[in-house]
Amino acid sequence: MPFRLIEAEDYVRINPSEFGKPLEDVALAQLRARYEGKSFRDLGFVVAVLGAKVAREGVILFGDGATYHRAVFDLLTYVPLDGEVVYGIVESAREVGVMVRIGPVLGFINKIHLMEEPNILFDASTKSFIGERSKRKVGVGDMVRARITGVSYVAQKEGLDLAVRITMTMRGPGLGKLEWLKEKKGKKP
Asked: Which interval of the chain is the signal sequence (predicted)?
């Protein structure tokens, strides 16, 4: 998975009530709340803010008792790439397809992309899909290997935050439920 370590820069606002506390701790808490768990078009999905160096001198704005300090910090990000082959665990299954956890994010696989079968049936009682001919089954908790077929960033309804949307397929050579891939490998001479 393409994880990246990125050096970033931003400003933090230090409230007068926090003036006695260590500057780096206060700034790091703010930066983590601002960045961790969020998606950005240029950065990808921010997994963690790892450390911050904060300028000792701050600026006071008229009418605001807080100080504003320049902070340089490291971000650990995950950037899903179109065409990348990933491993994941099926987290949920609905009639339309499955959600697969790939590292810190979820990807969607439409039921027609789960296996090389013309008819794939959904079993709501076991939250799994079954191939009509092969009787192969994939459902919640299964480990799979899939290829990312699309990555997009969309605005969430609540505000300006972006959500990453990932679509994937398990159709193709070397893709599928890991159990199936082991069976296939065992059949070769």
From this structure: none
Count helices and strands in the chain by DSSP H and E runs: 2, 14
In terms of DSSP H, where are the helices of 19-69? Answer: 23-35
Q: Under CATH, which number does the domain 3-78 receive?
A: 3.30.1490.120
Domain spans, the chain: 3-78, 85-187
- Tell me how far apart the alpha carbons of residues 62 and 152 are, in angstroms, rounded to a whole number: 41
In this predicted model, what pLDDT tens digit does every residue of 58-109 receive, in sequence order? 888 888 889 999 999 999 999 899 999 999 999 999 999 999 999 889 999 9
Name 34's Cβ contacts closer than 8 Å, sequence gap at least 6.
Answer: 10
pTM tops 0.85, yes or no: no
CATH architecture of 85-187: Beta Barrel (2.40)
| Backbone phi and psi for residue 30, each to the nearest 5 degrees, phi listed first | -65, -45
